# Entry
Amino acid sequence: MAAVGSAASWLFRLRAAGAEGHWRRLCGAGLARGFLHPAATGKDAAQRRQVAHFTFQPDPEPREYGQTQKMNLFQSITSALDNSLAKDPTAVIFGEDVAFGGVFRCTVGLRDKYGKDRVFNTPLCEQGIVGFGIGIAVTGATAIAEIQFADYIFPAFDQIVNEAAKYRYRSGDLFNCGSLTIRSPWGCVGHGALYHSQSPEAFFAHCPGIKVVIPRSPFQAKGLLLSCIEDKNPCIFFEPKILYRAAVEQVPVEPYNIPLSQAEVIQEGRDVTLVAWGTQVHVIREVASMAKEKLGVSCEIIDLRTIIPWDVDTVCKSVIKTGRLLISHEAPLTGGFASEISSTIQEECFLNLEAPISRVCGYDTPFPHIFEPFYIPDKWKCYDALRKMINY
Amino acid sequence: MAVAIAAARVWRQSRILGQAALLLLLRRPGARGLAISHPHRQQEQQFSSLDDKPQFPGASAEFIDKLEFIQPNVISGIPIYRVMDRQGQIINPSEDPHLPKEKVLKFYKSMTLLNTMDRILYESQRQGRISFYMTNYGEEGTHVGSAAALDNTDLVFGQYREAGVLMYRDYPLELFMAQCYGNVSDLGKGRQMPVHYGCKERHFVTISSPLATQIPQAVGAAYAAKRANANRVVICYFGEGAASEGDAHAGFNFAATLECPIIFFCRNNGYAISTPTSEQYRGDGIAARGPGYGILSIRVDGNDVFAVYNATKEARRRAVAENQPFLIEAMTYRIGHHSTSDDSSAYRSVDEVNYWDKQDHPISRLRHYLLSQGWWDEEQEKAWRKQSRKKVMEAFEQAERKPKPNPNLLFSDVYQEMPSQLRKQQESLARHLQTYGEHYPLEHFDK
# Structure
């Protein structure tokens, strides 16, 4: 009895102190000290993980949409979803783990607010999630599906490409799944490696019938997502996961729309056109400042926003003016969407070009883990490509 | 006592309990030995490790201490529900649906009209008039029995061998033919291969070639119907081969977990093109998979139109009332080739096919029933054969004569609105045809 008592109280103290306390006590007792705290030698041997390769640049506070609130990217997504479910009684949100709020917190609070029949988990099956979403949309209800990581969208590729994209065309417009939107976290995150970093937009660019949209910021995300949800065609909305917390700006509380298939010239310039989407827009913004400062070069920066159908006219107009084009994306070079832009622009603007079109992209490898800093098309690679283009 | 309570608190936090303390707590009266007053503590009692029941969240089951693998029962599988024998006689009168004469005649006429249309369109492909065709020989009972048990507004997702459902819903011959010919009357605007029918008015979702893709879609549609309080069921047809696809597994699992009012109707016709069922699955067909997903399941004689009707009727009633899925596996036989691109004598014997055609055919079984009821006779049979053939031939000749749709329809409906880049491509084709039009079959197409 006494033994139990003392054992019990030891356990009690241990538990009460918490895990950290436990480790500290072990350390203090001299146990496993070397293991837990490798000796620091000279400069900080515990190598810190890289800081981000970009700096998020918020846009100026929007004035035309009423009251705004400071939101990060995932909060702006939640806001868009909240607005959608409020306006559209048929709208439902589903996918893996969305009920408790989602692994990136994009759906926090929505189940409590709108009910478990409207915000619910599905079994772990991407082809099921998208197929199910198509079915909801066929009845005319609004289906907002989440694929937990864009890297896992491939089981649903058949449903997206062979079914969703072709539903209206193949039925002669008797049926469609236009009220389907698929949202998915996208792009590099610093440590995601092969299966938490992919940017698969190029696979879908080859598929007439769907729209693919990628925002660069919270304000853009909310407006574009609302447009996707309301668009009468099935849309895929990729959310740059590295921006979920890192991107913070003022976002209107009320719903608003940013049009699809319209690129945005976010900075005008004379000498070279820089095109990117998602996180990479912030990289090329910095490249533009570097170019201005070091080379005296004036860059026009375009955020493509919609991958398909893409805004050929805006990019053409810009290249006709500048004569030089640099396109940059994290996805691998070969067959990446930059190749489509490059091919179209050289067809349309051949005589305006002063230099070959430059593509600064990921390498033709799977997305590596420890080598990420070397893999990504960072500002130095973009700057170097720009410099070569200027000196061509 | 104080030690016991302290021990209990410790146990709650750390789940570590010495033998002595365990005995201590068991000595108190009551199974769990703890004070029951506090609701928090009451909840914990469910997690008590004191009584020896499994606590795993993943299964609701008892322990067993004998090592035994569950034997899949394939020697004698799930029994096959039937109402009529092979001669069309009701076996158990209490299962007779007692359908009125007009309804049963509609069954018969739908099946035979489909059969007649199949013969003529199959032949028309052989003659190069249409590019492709798939017949429904032997499976007419599965279509008509199930369609008759549904409401007209119940949404149908099919695979490609369910034309009888449309026939039962009075889809006109003209439109069947229009789709096969891809002519100007085709509601599908000539975009798909023959037999890829669709009809919004009759709630029949347009067929697509990829197999089983319709299964999770049907589940989503059923979920939406449930949310809309529509009192509608969704029925989803597929073959035993398509049931091997991942989409089938996805659909079953979603339907059960999300409590959808859906009927999964599997036509098990023995073959997926040339692949017999022995190479398609090793378990007890498709019906046996249902319980694995938590789905109420039944196997029926697909060539017995009343059995199909009864099962579908009851499944519909309960699916809507209880918001849960049902799985019906209708056993049947594909008497025809897979399609006009197939010659099944390469992989099965003519004798086997003849057995089904002559001895166990849904149409003849129903005809025997009609004859024994005095609702049909040889004269009516002759007259109807002549009349149905005439109707089909007329529709056929009309369909042949009509032009194809305007080539501009190649470009529309990709999106709801035509993107500017696509419009440019459309204009580029128009310009191309101005110069090179003689090399294209423009004379057959609508101007």
